[in-house]
Amino acid sequence: NQDILEAQTAIGKTRIIELYSKTLQTKKFLIATPTNQLKIEVAERLRALNVPVLESLSVSELEYISPRLKK
User: Fold this and answer.
1) Of 39, 58, 50, nearest in space to 14 by CA
2) For residue 32, which phi and psi values (nearest 5 degrees)?
3) Helix (H, G, I), strand (E, B) or coil at 35
4) 3-class SS at 22?
5) Residue-wise pLDDT tens digits, 5-28
6) Cβ distance 43 to 37 under 8 Å?
């Protein structure tokens, strides 16, 4: 069973996930962000609530990646 939360910016999606992660501790969430900075900020907010977070690497963080993909 999967749910998708898609909405415009600045309406509280991250806050909703924060609340759900505390009440549904067995649920896993996949959060996609448009920027690396936002990825870092969301991860920090969840870690501050003791929510386990696994961040994916960004293309710019990979050691080898095709130069045309880094553009």
Assistant:
1) 39
2) -105, 130
3) coil
4) helix
5) 777 878 888 888 888 877 776 677
6) no
> Residues for the chain: how many in total?
71
pLDDT tens digits, residue range 45-67?
888 988 888 888 787 776 666 66
Residue with tokens 């549904």: 24
CA distance 50 to 15: 14
Give me the amino acid identity at 67. Answer: P
End-to-end CA distance of the chain: give it in Å, rounded: 36
Neighbours of 45 (CB within 10 A): 15
Tokens 């936002």 correspond to 38
Contact 10, 16 (CB under 8 A): no
Here the tokens at position 61 are 């963080």
Unique residue bearing structure tokens 């553009």: 71
CA angle 62, 37, 68 (to 5 degrees): 40
